[in-house]
Design goal:
- By secondary structure, this protein is α/β, with parallel strands linked by helices.
- The protein has 3 domains: 44 residues, 434 Repressor (Amino-terminal Domain) (Orthogonal Bundle); 122 residues, Response regulator (Rossmann fold), CATH 3.40.50; 139 residues, Rossmann fold (3-Layer(aba) Sandwich).
- Helices cover 37% and strands 17% of the residues.
- It is built from 10 helices and 12 strands.
- It has a 6-stranded parallel sheet, with helices on one face.
- Helix 1 packs across helix 2, helix 5 packs across helix 10 and helix 8 crosses helix 9.
């Protein structure tokens, strides 16, 4: 038999109305009591009837997380959001980019967080926060229609390229999926600019987007074919860490030493980057701070829909590790911020 709000009220010796306020995230209950009620509800196995609650309150207490690409950094961000939601009445729905092909506007949620750009044609009846690698450059264009978190990466990408050139790498290849190889993409833009300034030939390795989301396996197959046909570059600048890990696997299989023969740089600085041998140089975003900011922006927007659009910016930084240390210079230990 399912547990009801009345059961929880009897167990704690409080009114059923107080239980309802706490479970629905409404005012009228102290934070200590709210946490006590949420904990007891969890212990008793309480499962709310969302449809009934939505009809009464107009709220579903669900938040959608939309991801443009299925990469490890997206999963790490999802874990951060799970932690943030744990002490609240919200549940999370994770939806990949393919889900946007369906009518996301009809989704029964109170708000959404999009990691990646939203289609201009997509209109949602609920508040949205967009988290974007900043593709806009100096010409920002129209003001944002949603709350926005921008993550500029071009400056850190240029530093990554200069670092490779300082390490005496002369044949440097840019590695990404086809849609991230245009001049609108800040990593690619930085690569082209630094290669031109150094008067070095450009080289692109295109990895087809994997339908199953397994970048590492698709990258392995691409690298093996490419290296057999074109030989080995001095360095690989990969647009995410999953591609870089695919490069690691292939280079090891083909007895190519990292970094003295081929240096590798990734992007996202996922949790396992520093655990590889050699540890992976990567471009890092402050993942925890970004998620906390996005969560606060969305939940405050849900409570107060009339707030003006807000924008917060979090810059990326290069974290140098052993995968690019061709000169064997001692490196300081780096940890994720």
């Amino acid at each position: 038999m399912s547990v009801t709000q009345k059961d929880i009220a009897l167990k704690l010796g409080v009114s059923q109305r107080l239980i309802s306020y706490a479970l629905n995230g409404q005012k009228g209950v102290g934070e200590n009591m709210r946490q006590r009620i949420l904990q007891e509800a969890g212990k008793m196995g309480y499962a709310p009837n969302r449809m009934a609650r939505a009809l009464v309150t107009g709220c579903t207490h669900q938040i959608a997380l939309w991801y443009q690409f299925s990469t490890t950094i997206n999963h790490e961000m999802s874990q951060q959001f799970q932690k943030l939601a744990k002490s609240t009445s919200y549940d999370l729905l994770s939806i990949s980019n393919k889900g946007q092909a369906h009518n996301s506007g009809a989704l029964a949620v109170d708000g959404g967080i999009f990691y990646g750009s939203i289609s201009p044609d997509l209109v949602t009846p609920y508040p949205v926060v967009e988290m974007l690698v900043d593709l806009r450059g100096k010409s920002a264009g129209e003001p944002p229609r949603n709350d926005l978190i921008l993550m500029p990466i071009e400056e850190a990408s240029r530093e990554a390229m200069r670092h490779l050139i300082e390490q005496q790498c002369r044949r440097i290849a840019y590695v990404s999926i086809p849609s991230m190889m245009g001049h609108y993409e800040p990593r690619y833009r930085a690569y082209v600019r630094e290669m031109r300034e150094a008067q070095l030939p450009m080289e692109n390795i295109s990895v087809e987007y994997p339908d199953d989301g397994n970048y590492r396996h698709r990258a392995q197959m691409t690298f093996k074919k490419y290296f057999c046909e074109h030989g080995f570059p001095d360095a690989l600048f990969c647009s995410n860490d999953d591609l870089a890990i695919g490069a690691y696997r292939t280079l090891r299989q083909m007895d190519r030493h990292i970094p003295t023969e081929t240096a590798v740089i990734g992007c996202d600085d996922i949790e396992e980057s520093q655990d590889h041998v050699p540890s992976l140089t990567s471009i890092q975003f402050p993942c925890q701070e970004i998620c906390e900011c996005a969560w606060e922006m969305l939940t405050s927007r849900i409570e107060n829909p009339d707030l003006p659009p807000r924008t917060h910016t979090f810059k990326a930084r290069l974290v140098k590790r052993q995968s690019t240390n061709r000169n064997n210079v001692p490196l300081l230990a780096h940890t994720k911020s």
